[in-house]
Amino acid sequence: MEPRDEFDLPRKPHIPGPTVNGWLVMILLALVIVLVYRDVRRHNQLLDPEAAERLVTARGDLADDEMSTIELFKNISPSVVHVTNLAQKIDANNFNVMEIPRGVGSGFIWGDDGYIVTNYHVIQGAAAAKVTLADNTVLDAKLVGFDDSKDIAVLKVNAPPEKLRPILVGSSSDLQVGQKVFAIGSPFELDQTLTTGVIGGLGREIQSVSGRPIQGVIQTDAAINPGNSGGPLLDSSGRLIGVNTAIASPSGGSVGIGFAVPVDIVRRVVPQLIRTGKVERPGLGVRTVDDRITRRMGLEGILVDKVLPGSAAAKAGLRSMDREKGGVGDLITAINGHEVRNHDDLYLALDARSIGDTVKVTVLRDGKGIELSVILQPLPTVSP
Predict the structure, then answer these.
(1) Dihedrals φ, ψ of 206, to 5°?
(2) Active-site residue 229, yes or no?
(3) What pLDDT score does 207 carry?
(4) Catalytic site residue 151?
(5) Catalytic residue (choose from 121, 186, 208, 235)
(6) ∠ CA 147-224-146 to the nearest 5 degrees?
(7) What CATH number does the domain located at 282-378 have?
């Protein structure tokens, strides 16, 4: 056995004490407990076990203008409908044809015989359409006809007359900037939505989906958003004065400038669509050169490319472009004394006329101005 040093005594077991980190954790935990207790105590001081419901303060009658707006909405909203543009898709699993919503808009009831008016761009390209009435009745709709140059379309639904309340029709010829207007429609698919505002401008001009200008458009600050298209713009008597059609917006939402096709155009177009499914417009019977090409040639006006055989223009003596000899055709510069610089000017000049009217057409031919009398003829129409 090896000798043991006298100083090599048995050692007591080491029991570790709290470290610095351990003390810090304990201190923080205690601090949290103190803070929580303080917050609970403060919150309890805010509570009142005796709290009771507040009594309702009685109010007087609604203001006259509020009552008028409420009454207008109650009377007119049943005439406003929600329009759904449907596309057809074939199910790859069972080859069934499905109808898929591809766009929505608004419309209004024209008569108790089932005719519905909306914007053409709302139902453009639709394989089918559905109309939802104010009472949530959903009906299949058929396209009767459209006028893309005025962005107007007519649909037809089968429903009993008692479910259809025709809208009241007014006039747009006597409107004034500043008068109150009301729009009802389905912005962002929120059907039966009412917005209010005033007429901010008259005689505006917008482009239709066909590219032709729509003249005399009403400008309003009544909020118009996607889904309002095709819905009615109303005066304070609840009469239709326009069809909400477009907004001026860099973001796609309402910024206080909306546009409505005036009802005087609607009253002229809709009966023609119901009678024949199309609108006949007066024309000269010529094929013309694109404005950009005419400008590149250094000319201002409507350059005649071809005079259609047997047309009103042919009978009046207008000349076509001579491609074999390189001759330039007649350049139309005025209609009834009103300057024509481009196709927009021509459309506006002819829109104010009717088929069978005689107009004075001023043309530039071989550097000389000539005036010809043309009896307007129907333009070719596009069938729905």
Answers:
(1) -130, 165
(2) yes
(3) 87
(4) yes
(5) 121
(6) 10
(7) 2.30.42.10
